[in-house]
Amino acid sequence: MPDLALLQGIHDEALPLIGQGRVADYIPALAGVPANRLGIAICTADGELLGAGDYLDPFSIQSISKVFSLIQAMSLYEEQELWSRVGKEPSGNPFNSLVQLEFEHGIPRNPFINAGALVVSDMLQGRLSAPKHRMLELVRELSGNQHIVCDKVVARSEYEHSARNAAICYLMKSFGNFHNDVDGVMKSYFNHCAIRMSCADLARAFFFLANKGVCLGGRRMISERQSRQVNALLATCGLYDGAGEFAYRVGMPGKSGVGGGIVAVVPGELSVCVWSPELDPSGNSLAGTRMLELLAKRLGRSIF
Amino acid sequence: MPDLALLQGIHDEALPLIGQGRVADYIPALAGVPANRLGIAICTADGELLGAGDYLDPFSIQSISKVFSLIQAMSLYEEQELWSRVGKEPSGNPFNSLVQLEFEHGIPRNPFINAGALVVSDMLQGRLSAPKHRMLELVRELSGNQHIVCDKVVARSEYEHSARNAAICYLMKSFGNFHNDVDGVMKSYFNHCAIRMSCADLARAFFFLANKGVCLGGRRMISERQSRQVNALLATCGLYDGAGEFAYRVGMPGKSGVGGGIVAVVPGELSVCVWSPELDPSGNSLAGTRMLELLAKRLGRSIF
Amino acid sequence: MPDLALLQGIHDEALPLIGQGRVADYIPALAGVPANRLGIAICTADGELLGAGDYLDPFSIQSISKVFSLIQAMSLYEEQELWSRVGKEPSGNPFNSLVQLEFEHGIPRNPFINAGALVVSDMLQGRLSAPKHRMLELVRELSGNQHIVCDKVVARSEYEHSARNAAICYLMKSFGNFHNDVDGVMKSYFNHCAIRMSCADLARAFFFLANKGVCLGGRRMISERQSRQVNALLATCGLYDGAGEFAYRVGMPGKSGVGGGIVAVVPGELSVCVWSPELDPSGNSLAGTRMLELLAKRLGRSIF
Amino acid sequence: MPDLALLQGIHDEALPLIGQGRVADYIPALAGVPANRLGIAICTADGELLGAGDYLDPFSIQSISKVFSLIQAMSLYEEQELWSRVGKEPSGNPFNSLVQLEFEHGIPRNPFINAGALVVSDMLQGRLSAPKHRMLELVRELSGNQHIVCDKVVARSEYEHSARNAAICYLMKSFGNFHNDVDGVMKSYFNHCAIRMSCADLARAFFFLANKGVCLGGRRMISERQSRQVNALLATCGLYDGAGEFAYRVGMPGKSGVGGGIVAVVPGELSVCVWSPELDPSGNSLAGTRMLELLAKRLGRSIF
Question: Is D235 part of the contact surface with chain C (CB cutoff 8 Å)?
């Protein structure tokens, strides 16, 4: 069983890695985050929360938001319709590449690369009247924290550096796989990415994937089968071009963001979130990945 | 708990799918296999074997042999040396594509695509004096069946249609990632692919991956950690370009072959092998995948 | 020497090809053009114009406008600045592909594929106060026809189907190779494409490339050296993915448009324009290419 | 009219470029060539030969041999059969890339990239009893020099570093576009590449392409039409990935080799060969290209 001493030990062992990675700097608002942060939080099967280090500091969740978007789309669309517009396979390419998207006629490989998340956002835009507000409602309910907000400065900064994402949207539009106004969808998308949550918030928010679809508050978010499906997608596609290495080293379904957060799940046992802003060359938190690797090793827990 | 009635029920439910797929026909020797075969065998945690349908019929294991080759290489080479010559990431491309291999300077994406298995065979060739014989010894020990043999007609037929595999080997050689004679390595490789085993043999042979690295006979084949790593690789890369879909539908680490076999594992619980020669468009057994999907559903077992 | 009988003979011999190609239909406004048009006009070294068939009918010049844009950019920018933003090599890819553009960091292969013409338009936008008007002035002067106009319906129709071109622009912007507002540049670009000129207009307008840079009216448009350079670019890159075949069959520097026009030049001897709306699979006028092939054969004229 | 003073002036002006390029070093036998050589030879319309610098030194013709192979194939095969196995378009990719070849189902883009020359060699192998000897006969007749030989050391060295070319051959074989034994064809191919000729030899040998297909000795090698076609192919595809730049700067159909030689032609006027072993980043002779550029400028001769 995980306890505070375990988490503190993992935290302390990963601490010396700080300084070896690189904070994301493609937008100024992210580049300004203090590099020396390190936090870990676990939500156990009975819903208890344990944390160490900076686990209460909110940070930009970035691509972790793609999981929340997918959950929303799964509840709004029939399975068949959803998966006709986005695939379920690992991409084998950088997260924002257009090459594969062109070869595959505008159908993104999976919902966790940028193209896939943008098409999911396009789907949400078509069904939700206030997508940004609904997303905040969702993450507040999942984490039990009513104070979660979106960082407007980050969202604006993303928007001002959105040329490649716009290229992706227009390419999908040229194939008929993007229906709404590109600008409007991108604004929602960047707002979702710019939501700020702490390790504690995210460990709690992902509890439902360790708990067969039922969130901490007791509400069923998705069916047990859907919960397994999301975990399967996370295991094969959740870490960009590093999914295989992550499975090999950590062995948990997970999702990373360039803000330095990584969430992961051992179904039936626990949800966990780590955070450290410095990234490895694949764009995943360097010290964060190490903490998850240590956790899997110490607990002897992995899905494999 | 799985029992005979469960397996028989799954078998019967999948039976009507026969006729909807296509037997592999890229080599004449495989095209001649009767299309209407259907078998399933399970090896439970306590080592008991259950089977239904044609589960005792031997068939060509084809790419399933890539797992055995990897196991051999893991015991012959240091972790670092092995993974410097082959990656751990899903390929996102057809199993025999040269495009990615050229872009990535002759380092194959993972050991379960052709390029990766060929480089692993090249490594075995460099360390084993009689690689074909040693492979037979391995599969006989793992399955407890001393009568397993290689089908020389299939091996020769593969060799006579090996131009693309030769292209792959020479491309890796041009990048310095292939050291032995191409012809010699390909002959070993095709001999491994042409080994004939039944569902019963394969379910037993893969027991060690459900049993933390210890095979049915009691010998430790690989460490517990290595066993987790192999399962992780199978989950992310084991089904060619259909790994994500397989994870989504079945949720078990697995490996398929164009002979129509698929092996899969639920760590700590069971190993399973299904067989039906007709393939889906991704090259995986159509009825076989369905049987695994039904098994996961009925047992409520999946790694997710 | 070309004479009217020669042109009429070529026209008559190509006439039976009508019905074998396909009118461009990616925008409704172009799809409505009568398919059975066929015209040819030649401007000889002494400036005389000869024509046959529908050589006085105006049609949508489409990509032929890319040559006019390049000429403008050559007069507005230093050689080095211009060619740092667009290359001089054949693309070996469809005219609107994004793949190569991504691999080559947003620098288009040449000014005659869409990406290249869009970056040239972006450059014009940065230096000209009224780019659409200036383009009309240019083609009117070159052809000596003050009545040339832009077809606003076609321009609008192009704009309404511009998702792929928008993707191209944003991709270049993401690499820092596109500086102005995407919408504004695309509007200018589509206006240039939608200019309507006849074979007579275009044969006259391209006379300067057969005349060392001096147009029919006597004004030097570009230097003799630049004239050779433009012809060299046309010979290697002027016919999309069919430049080699066109050189092989026709042997003249040329530029085609999906409106069915093709202009070509024998330096020192003549400029020629053919028109027939039905296209071959490469997107070049089917009967038009045939007329040019016959002309080269009958006159024994080619640059090779 | 070109005269000795002109050639000597061009030679002297290019001389300071020596030291700025890099001698090909992918095979040891080529890396040993003295880097400071510089020669130019012209064969005028009346068959006169002029030369300056090291124009009588033989060097390894390398890819220039691809033109001779094509000429042989054009005389042995029907036009349609030949061009069904190799294309006529620029490749837009490095000369030895497999990517495009795989996408285009084993049909090489043109006869002047490695894949194309290898398929042409495969065709020659199928029709000629002693292909190496016949090639020597051809180049001896074309140049009027009976002492031309193949450098066996270079040929062997090429063969020992042939993994990538083998990959190309096997890939084409897998698509059904390569019929003979790979090793045998490669040996012929490398023998052709290893032929040693001087600038004088090559300027004379290419005279037929400036003379409507008739060689210096008076024999018609190919028809006038075929001569134009070969020049067209050279103009669009003769300089690897630098054909556009070469056309822009020099404006003559030409073919380069990694031995540092470049041949070029102004139809009806002259054939020329330059040589200097140091290459630019595209693999074309650095000082050689400069000499051709100066020649075009001084003579005012170009096809454009």
Answer: yes
Q: Give the per-residue pLDDT at A134.
A: 96
Report the residue of chain A nearest B264, measured CA to CA: A304
3-state secondary structure of D15: helix
3-class SS of residue B187: helix
Could you say which residues from 108 to 167 on chain B have a Cβ atom under 8 Å away from some Cβ of chain D? Answer: 163-164, 166-167
C-alpha gyration radius of chain C:
18
How far apart, in whole angstroms, are the C-alpha atoms of residue C10 and residue D192? 43
Residue of A63, A256, A276, A285 marked active site: A63
Radius of gyration of chain D (CA): 18
Residue carrying the six token digits 């103009």: D235
- Contact assignment for D97 to B102 by CB distance below 8 Å: yes
Q: Is residue A287 a contact partner of residue A14, using CB atoms and an 8 Å limit?
A: yes
| pLDDT on residue D95 | 61
- A167 contacts in C (CB within 8 Å)? 98, 166-171, 173-174
* CATH level 2 (architecture), domain D4-60+196-299: 3-Layer(aba) Sandwich (3.40)
Tell me how close the Cα of C254 comes to any Cα of chain D, in angstroms: 12
Out of C33, C258, C263, C265, the active site residue is C258
3-state DSSP: chain C helix, strand, coil percent, rounded to 5?
50, 15, 35
A248-251: long-range pairs with CB below 8 Å, 24+? A248/B88, A248/B229, A248/B232, A248/B233, A249/A289, A249/A293, A249/A296, A250/A289, A250/A292, A250/A293, A250/A296, A250/A302, A251/A296, A251/A302, A251/A303, A251/A304, A251/B228, A251/B232
Active site residue C63: yes
* C172-209 per-position pLDDT tens digit: 999 999 999 999 999 999 999 999 999 999 999 999 99
What DSSP designation does C284 have? S
Does the annotation mark A265 as catalytic? no
Residues of C in contact with A182 (CB under 8 A): 166
- The catalytic residue among A240, A255, A256, A271 is A240
CATH architecture label of B64-193: 3-Layer(aba) Sandwich (3.40)
Q: Cα C188 to chain center, whole Å?
A: 16
CATH fold label, B4-62+197-299: Beta-lactamase (3.40.710)
Name the CATH topology of C4-62+195-299: Beta-lactamase (3.40.710)
Q: Is residue A272 annotated as part of the catalytic site, yes or no? A: no
CATH of domain C63-193: 3.40.710.10
**Residue D55 marked as a ligand binder:** no
Chain B contact present for A21, CB below 8 A: no
Report residue B67 as tokens: 């797992």
Q: Evaluate if residue D185 carries a pLDDT over 80.
A: yes
Domain ranges of chain C: 4-62+195-299, 63-193
Question: Which residues on chain D are in Cβ contact (under 8 Å) with B93?
Answer: none
Q: What is this structure's pTM?
A: 0.94
Interchain CB contact of A254 with B (< 8 Å): no
What mean pLDDT comes out for the span D214-221? 96
Would the annotation count B96 as a binding residue?
no
Q: How far apart are CA B99 and CA A181, in angstroms?
A: 35
D102 is in an annotated binding site: no
Q: Is the pLDDT of residue A95 over 70?
A: no
Three-state secondary structure call for residue D82: helix
* AA letter at D80: Q
- List the catalytic residue out of D33, D65, D189, D227: D189
